[in-house]
């Protein structure tokens, strides 16, 4: 059984003298990718807190805030016994409906995911810092699946001197390569097949990775083979800066891809060695 | 004697098991207003930390970052024995020279002080949250002298669920009414006399405070009596919102004033009961 808390005060009281705390922030609709984060958390802490909160601040107009899957009972049922679940109402975190003071993600927050989703990363960082201030964990665990999110959370921890360590877990995939995502639930059977174009593009980039140009060419060919996947971007970025790598870059880059499949927007990423 | 720390790691190590910590963030050039904050801090905590850091992020182009008074030895000499001083170099807090992820003060951050000093409050909140994350105090002490700063720090604590209490100390004044400020050091003898227009305007507003209109009229007359004071703004704001109060407002408002005297920009504020 998990313990459930819905208010900040009750959770804070529970966490007094809770020893070393590891925290896994989620939006619920938990899958094996989330559970991998929770198991990492269990290994490094006395107490594990999983938040389940669909954060309105990080959804834009016309995005899927309304239809995002919410099933707290199902989520609690798949979590290991002993985990503390924090599932506040929106009014608990935003008593005024919004915040005046918020986080600003800076220039990288306007690229890639942020270009298609204006304000997304400001809203994401704002809720993450709120949750970190409520839980005050020793370590926070994120999934590499959301590479730009992970980059910006790392920057935030560093830039704002947040007293927390970050642990990043590798992406969990289906046997055929599809990265686990709560949004996979939106996919019809043919869409799920189309969605394989993302991981196929990353594999093609990895296999062809002599140079930036050869990796990009191979990935774009793989994406072109699934014309119903509406590609938003494919690029290779420097993990240290999240800026596109130059043509002569040598070392580990991160290949990132985003595409719309039907009405569902999917993202994925993988390391690619160049040079 | 004070204890001096210049690095984050050394300060954090010193503050382990330091009991209840109270924190007074300053830019140095300490005067009796700062010392009043420190004495409040001593009363409520086992350990008192005073930071002395002239934060480049909150100064704009053409402002007084370069000439702002810096004298660490003099500052340490006036602090009570036992106080921990944290005086980092700029590179300790901004190893990259700046931050990518920062605080955004929102709409109120663009009014009054923020209108004249674009970005000032984003930079101020950013360094305050950094210092709070480094010191992790139980209580942070600010002076009411900087009313808009206090308003925004309160909002930040509330909006971001920062685990810290805030204590605000009343403004300390010279016998003739001039609010203590590190920037008073810039004033020549005649300028110091002119500077009394600010506190005179606040007194006039208090004395005439039947309505917003009568308070504003009285204050503007007092300011007009010192034509060499270059008034930036005088207004009455609601302490709950920092928005100008309506004409029929009843209750406690905050009268706020800013003026340039010579090359020195001064601010002051006082409570005014209306209605």
Characterization of the model:
Two copies of one chain form a homodimer. With 275 residues, chain A is of the alpha/beta class. Chain A folds into two domains: 3-169, Rossmann fold; 182-269, 2-Layer Sandwich (Pantoate--beta-alanine Ligase, Chain: A,domain 2), CATH 3.30.1300. Chain A is 35% helix and 23% strand. In chain A, helix 6 packs across helix 7 (147-159) and helix 8 packs antiparallel against helix 9. The A-B interface holds A 8, 12, 93, 99-108, 122, 125-126, 129-130, 133-134, 136, 152, 155-156, 159-163 and B 8, 12, 93, 99-108, 122, 125-126, 129-130, 133-134, 136, 152, 155-156, 159-163.
Could you name the key traits of this structure?
2 domains; 275 residues; 23% strand; globular; alpha/beta; Pantoate--beta-alanine Ligase, Chain: A,domain 2; Rossmann fold; homodimer
Fold topology:
The structure is a homodimer of 275-residue chains.
Chain A: E1 3-5, H1 8-15, E2 21-26, H2 32-44, E3 47-52, H3 72-78, E4 84-86, H4 90-93, E5 102-104, H5 113-116, H6 120-135, E6 139-143, H7 147-159, E7 165-169, H8 189-207, H9 212-224, E8 229-237, E9 251-261, E10 264-274
Parallel strand pairs in A: 1-4, 2-3, 2-6, 3-4, 6-7
Antiparallel strand pairs in A: 8-9, 9-10
